[in-house]
Amino acid sequence: VREAWRRARIGLASPRGLVLPAARLGLPGALQSAIFRLEDPWEGPDLRRNQSYVKELAELTGYDGPLENGPAWLAAHAAEFRYDPATGRYRGE
Hints:
The chain is mainly α.
């Protein structure tokens, strides 16, 4: 996952299927990419309906509100999250 994410970040591969596994590992930019996929005009609506995708992001970030409000909350706070290797989760700053 680390090598694939590195390649995706420099434009040599597509990050689509990598963002959640990379975010789980705390790789740079992965969580923000996963969040911004929710805003993508093509795949965003399907991802927002996919409760497992939103739930995974909520678990990684500590969001505990209604899942239907999760995408907006995550987008509003995306720049604030920093990975905590001790917990394997992200926390806002």
